[in-house]
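Revision sheet: structure tokens.
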Amino acid sequence: MWAAIRPWLFPIWCIGCGEPGVGLCAACAAMTQPVAVNLDGLAVGAASDYEGVVRAAILAMKRGERAYLDPLAELVAPLVAPGSVMIPVTTTRPRAAQRGFDQGRELAHRVAAIRSGTCDDVLIKHGAAQRGRGRSERLEAASRFAVRRGALVPSSAVLLDDVLTTGATLHAAAAALAAAGCSVEGAVVVARTPPGRETPRGGRWLVEA
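Predicted:
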């Protein structure tokens, strides 16, 4: 019943072209181009650069709009091997409560379902948001991730995050998992900021692999 009446109560349109009934239509999604990044030895696959319709969809998702979770997960899924164990890079509890969900968890569960894999939600995040921080400030906060107490950590897994900026967040998450005995095979993100663009406070970005 809810599935039938929800589109009438909360109508959605493609954020790119305005096609009704979908957050990101197939035609607009097809305009994206995957990118491979070497993050100091960690292989990262990005479904797109952080621009255009993908950037708009990510920003809408971070405002709490769930309509973009499924199409963004579908963009990421082809970058993940079938049967993979996905571990989401979580946000803080206050941020998740503010938007009504944790985008990392939601995306990881969807990607795992698409690729017939599993999602192990074993990471927790402490501290303030990273937005607006330069690379050195992000690296100084490298201990902000921890493994949940009592969690069964897989022997190997793939990390999933929404946006790749300096890479400090993925490195911190991978370090926490490695300390718990999990080998991080790689990571996937919805988007990465193109090389050469600086953070608002002077941090550098990554080079393409």
